[in-house]
Design brief:
The complex is a heterodimer of chains A (about 500) and B (about 325). Chain A is built from 22 helices and two strands. Chain A is mostly helical. Chain A has a two-stranded antiparallel ribbon with strand order 1-2. In chain A, helix 6 (about 105-140) packs parallel to helix 12 (about 300-315), helix 7 (about 145-160) runs antiparallel to helix 19 and helix 17 crosses helix 18. Chain A is globular. The mean pLDDT of chain A is about 85. Chain B has twelve helices and ten strands. In chain B, strand 1, helix 2 (about 45-60) and strand 2 form a beta-alpha-beta unit. Chain B starts with a helix and ends in a 5-residue tail after the last helix. Classes of the chains: A mainly alpha (about 500), B alpha/beta (about 325). Chains A and B meet through helix 3, helix 14, helix 17 and helix 19 of A and helix 1, helix 2, strand 2, helix 3 and strand 6 of B.
Chain lengths: ~500, ~325
């Protein structure tokens, strides 16, 4: 413990050098922008700026690149809340209640809660990273294909709690998402599926183009078909800050989101995307008034926003302790270190303590900077809502197209986004919720691969899922949740049954 | 309109004062050169392409932009270059997958031999056969015995169906006559993680990504795939000592669209060879465990053709096909 403290002091002596501070700030600033621009996520942002760091010394390079990564988790909420456009995959869930809050004139409050939640989650996660990284990293190693399968089964069950529409509509949307997720080369056998000889579809359908299309473009198109003459939300200055009640409602979701996000973040693979989805579903599952979700529930912003920040920090645990990236972003960071002749891995802490601890300390500082950067900007961002739709929307569509194209230099991605935009418009017209579709798309490729990997590992023996403790526990939790749901469905009518009746009455 | 990516790069370089560039006016290149890379930013080939691109840009006085076109098993980058104007301003990072794909893909409208003119080679990468350090197996011979006594229970992992990490294993299976069950992962880090966790049993991975784990002792090397020992791992024998004739080398090089004028190719070959031989860059490549080598366009072309033939046999043996 004492040595950790000493090391951290060494870290701060590096991180607080003015030049390192400057690069941390630069990274946080770029990260915020990258998170806000639709389509361009942290991966694209870091890849674009990677060559720029060649001339820098390694500590500055890694501090700046990491700043882009966790900074983007702050920025991602802004466009989600104000315009229902997910800046990147992790902020899809914020689009739902964040945007609903903005529609009610609480945009400032939502932005504040997102920023403060992100700050708390980011800082707590860095503390956890400092203190318990090595033992947690070994936990990450025990997360193999069977555990993944079990985690995603749990994700599938939570899918049912994702949406503010009836169960039938939710599952319908989820099925569409699951089907879309099967497009692409089958990793196990190498067969193209549903690709219609379009090579780009071989790698599957990207989450970002789908999310930007369904949420952002869908919303813009549906606004255009309504009569909204001058109907612009004008938030008053004193309404910018969250009320006492709103703070109270977000305290627990922030805490739960942080723990959940951090744990999911350290799991190797692409699971960290589902942290914000799971957080949203959990908040809704345990809320006293689940029917408020989708109509501007504070917890629906606070939980997922904290979870995605905690996950982005948690992802550094296996990267720093084992040299294994948890996702594409940390893979690029490892490459950035390698470029400077520093291999990330178990040796990093001993061989380059000033890099390791400087990097960790810079995250404490970086989170403070991001809070200082984001809170004062809330007032400015909210003013975007004053811009008339006929100026604002064409601009947004342009940014969406450029952003989505830039990620893979792929025109196919732009088409996917545009088609999904039209689809999103139809969904909005007929009151379907696109969130389960996006989660379905996120889950399918990994779920299918890990299920089949597990079965190959065990030569087709299904008991592999119950022999491994983590997998068995996750399956047990899934079973309990299913039983509880079945109980409430049979014994008393839950709120979703009432929703189905309302929906049926609408049609009648 | 300047693409956003380039704008950000230029703005970024300006802000951070990038490496000095000597500008020499010449008819070629008249504008920035793009090298299309078949992996995303951060992969070993991407790092090497960026190193070469940096050196090349200092020599020819034009910026060299690395454009990542991952996907389609390398075919998307190939297609983009094959369709670009043959004026030497759009180049391809050619690699072993492009030679494998000639046989692997059922329907392929682009083909590295037909559509790409070889320009220069960059490096050879040995692969290394790795097992978990807790495995009882300590040598290639012991591994073969172990696999023969546990048929159907030893899992070979790879970073994806039909790529070099997979085919190196299939070639080993073919040459040693053992039985291995293939469990593919989506990328190299995921496969290495699974190996460290003990979920799978063996991988043939390229040295650049394997080296940190070998040095840290989190993975045990059994043998290198190069025909002889390599400098980066002097204590590790060559697999061919135990399995005669077994050899796998990954290589990288630069190609241009078919029909690029010979004088442009000759100029690029001279410059790239000079970059690859630059002691600083050679040392950098060596630090990844990579072995730089230069060649003429013609001999590089021969290498691509020979590799295409070699992997055709392995792909047919393993019964692989992507359709």
């Amino acid at each position: 413990m004492e040595t950790t403290f000493d090391s951290l002091l060494l870290g701060f002596s590096v991180a607080l050098q003015p030049s390192v501070l400057w690069y941390a700030f630069l990274g946080c600033l770029v990260g915020t922008l990258v998170g806000m621009l639709p389509g361009i996520g942290p991966l694209a942002g870091i890849s674009i700026l990677l060559p720029v760091t060649y001339g820098l010394e390694p500590t500055k390079a890694i501090v700046m690149l990491a700043g882009i990564y966790y900074g983007s988790q702050y920025g991602g909420s802004t466009t989600s809340i104000l315009m229902r456009i997910p800046g990147e995959a992790a902020s899809v869930m914020t689009c739902i209640d964040g945007y609903a809050m903005a529609q009610k004139g609480r945009a400032g409050a939502a932005l504040c809660i997102a920023a403060v939640g992100s700050f708390i989650a980011g800082t707590l996660s860095v503390i956890a990273l400092t203190v318990v990284a090595p033992p947690l990293a070994n936990f990450a190693l025990r997360f193999g294909p069977p555990e993944y399968t079990a985690l995603l089964v749990l994700g599938l069950i939570f899918l049912a709690y994702m949406s503010s529409t009836s169960l039938v509509r939710t599952l319908l949307m989820a099925s569409v998402g699951l089907l879309l997720g099967t497009i692409g080369i089958d990793v196990m056998t190498g067969h193209f599926r549903y690709s219609f000889d379009i090579k780009e579809l071989g790698d599957g359908i990207g989450i970002v183009p789908v999310a930007v299309g369904l949420f952002g473009l869908g919303e813009i198109l549906s606004k255009a078909s309504k009569d909204v003459t001058g109907d612009v939300i004008r938030p008053k200055l004193r309404e910018l800050l969250p009320s006492r009640e709103e703070w109270r409602q977000s305290a627990m979701p922030i805490t739960r989101g942080t723990v959940l996000g951090f744990l999911i973040g350290i799991v190797p693979g692409s699971a960290h995307i589902i942290s914000s989805f799971l957080s949203y579903a959990i908040e809704k599952r345990i809320a006293n008034h689940p029917e408020e979700f989708g109509k501007g529930a504070v917890a629906g912003v606070a939980g997922p926003e904290s979870a995605n920040n905690a996950a982005s920090t948690g992802a550094f645990v296996p990267m720093l302790a084992l040299g294994i990236p948890t996702g594409p972003v940390t893979a690029v960071l490892i490459a950035a270190l390698l470029l400077h002749g520093i291999p990330a891995g178990p040796m990093l802490v001993n061989e380059h303590p000033q890099v390791f601890w400087g990097f960790v300390a810079s995250m404490y500082v970086g989170n403070l900077m991001l809070l200082a950067l984001n809170l004062p900007l809330v007032g400015m961002f909210v003013n975007v809502l004053r811009i008339k739709y006929y100026y604002l929307y064409p601009l947004i569509i342009m940014f969406c197209i450029i952003g989505v194209y830039e990620v893979n230099n792929s025109i196919i991605d732009v088409w996917i986004m545009l088609i999904m935009g039209v689809f999103g418009y139809l969904l909005r017209k007929f009151d379907f919720d696109p969130a389960p579709l996006v989660l379905g798309l996120v889950i399918t490729p990994t779920f299918e691969l890990s299920l089949r990997q597990s079965l190959v590992m065990s030569s087709g023996d299904w008991t592999i899922f119950f022999q491994r403790p983590i997998a068995a526990t996750l399956f047990a939790v899934s079973a309990i949740l299913l039983l509880l749901a079945a109980y409430s469905a049979f014994s008393r009518r839950d709120w979703r049954a009432k929703l189905a009746e309302v929906e049926a009455a609408d049609k009648g | 309109m300047i693409p956003l990516r380039r704008f950000l790069q230029l703005a970024g370089s300006a802000a951070l004062a990038a490496a000095p560039q000597s500008a020499r006016a010449q008819s070629y290149p008249s504008r920035p050169i793009t090298i299309m890379v078949f992996v995303g930013a951060g992969g070993a080939p991407d790092i090497i392409a960026r190193l070469i691109g940096q050196g090349l840009s200092q020599r020819i006085g034009q910026p060299v932009v690395i454009e990542n076109r991952p996907g389609g098993g390398g075919n998307l980058s190939l297609q983009a270059v094959a369709r670009a104007p043959a004026d030497g301003h759009t180049l391809l990072l050619i690699a072993t997958p492009h030679a494998i794909n000639v046989t692997l893909y059922e329907k392929l409208n682009v083909n590295v031999i037909r559509d790409i003119a070889p320009v220069a080679s960059i490096n050879n990468d040995s692969f290394v056969m790795l097992v978990n350090p807790s495995s009882p197996v300590k040598s290639v011979a012991e591994f073969i015995v172990h696999a023969k006594s546990n048929p159907g229970k030893v899992n070979l992992t790879s970073s994806g169906n039909g790529n070099l990490t997979h085919l190196s294993g299939e070639l080993f299976r073919m040459a040693s006559g053992i039985d291995l069950v293939h469990v593919p992962y989506r990328n190299t880090p995921a496969a290495l993680t699974a190996l460290m966790a003990g979920d799978v049993h063996v991988i043939f991975d390229a040295l650049p990504s394997a080296m940190p784990h070998v040095k840290a002792g989190s993975l045990r090397p059994l043998g290198v795939t190069a025909p002889a020992r390599v400098k980066a791992l002097p204590d590790v024998p060559s697999i061919s000592d135990t399995v005669p004739g077994y050899a796998v080398t990954g290589w990288l090089g630069i190609g241009a669209p078919h029909g690029t004028p010979a004088e442009i190719i000759a100029k690029l070959n001279k410059d790239i060879n000079a970059v690859v031989s630059d002691p600083e860059i050679a040392a950098r490549l060596a630090s990844f465990g990579s072995d730089p080598f230069t060649s003429t366009p013609a001999s590089f072309g021969k290498l691509i053709a020979a590799e295409t033939e070699k992997w055709e046999k392995v792909v047919r043996f393993a019964g692989l096909k992507i359709e």
